């Protein structure tokens, strides 16, 4: 029997005590046989380190490595540092409050191994609130499970300034491709994941899994006008990265159209989240099991 490839599940943490234990336990129950869990504490001042230490002490049968910094370096810094510690063939980044189904890693690794020309695997995901109640299960980039042209999807993301791939917990990629792309960009926050997805999609295709194998958590701060304004302010930095990569030009009409799309999408997203949070008391928590 061929040994399974090692997967590094990387978890950056900054003051994530509220949901961290739930996230770690969703990672610990993966039915894939060969994983390492890397937890990087980026200068947290809450109980995050104690939770990570207790988890590592309890789960002695798992490969768990803990790292910490005394000073916070920001979101991109956390992404970069935790992924740099990965020793696996594949990398999966799971943020401190998100969840993955028990078969998420196994399904995504299988897609990678069966499709060597694929640069990343993504899945549909649920959107949940603080009580793990499902608010939405939005459609992904495609309607059916399968392999799709990577550069074509990258062009759609670039045209609209929108992440059509998914949040980090929905994605799996190779460590070698991450290194070839130079890791996550250090100068971004809100576009840090999309920036890497576009880079990866220049190297190969995407394999999309229609079943929701992950859950992304939102709260009131996700819909705030401050975040919407910050997204718009950071857009030129991301566009500069993409111009350097040579995948977009600097024509003013393209930039204007992209800004209109980003503003409209941001306002709509904020309105949907606020409305869903108001109605959340009517929803029931769900069990994220095998994508069902």
Outline the structure in words.
This protein is of the alpha/beta class and 292 residues long. The chain has a single domain (7-221), classed as Spore Coat Polysaccharide Biosynthesis Protein SpsA, Chain A (Alpha-Beta Complex), CATH 3.90.550. 41% of the residues lie in helices and 21% in strands. It contains 9 helices and 10 strands. The chain has helices spanning 17-28, 48-58, 75-84, 104-114, 150-160, 175-180, 192-201, 225-245, 252-279, and strands at 7-13, 35-42, 63-69, 90-93, 99-100, 118-128, 134-136, 146-148, 171-174, 205-217. Strands 1, 2, 3, 4, 5, 6, 7, 8, 9 and 10 form a 10-stranded mixed β-sheet that branches. The chain is globular and about 55 Å long.
Distance between the termini: 30 Å
Average per-residue pLDDT, rounded, comes to 88
Gyration radius, in Å: 18 Å
Number of helices: 9
**Count of domain modules:** 1
Shape: globular
Judged by helices, strands and strand pairing, the structural class is alpha/beta
Care to count the β-strands? Answer: 10
Into which percent range does the helicity of residues fall? 40-55%
- Relative strand content: 15-25%
Low-confidence stretches: none
- What is the CATH domain class? Alpha Beta
CATH architecture: Alpha-Beta Complex
* SSE succession: EHEHEHEEHEEEHEHHEHH
- Tell me the major beta sheet: 10 strands, mixed
The third-level CATH topology is Spore Coat Polysaccharide Biosynthesis Protein SpsA, Chain A
CATH-wise, what's the superfamily? Spore Coat Polysaccharide Biosynthesis Protein SpsA, Chain A
What labels would you give this structure?
Spore Coat Polysaccharide Biosynthesis Protein SpsA, Chain A, single chain, 41% helix, alpha/beta, 9 helices, 292 residues
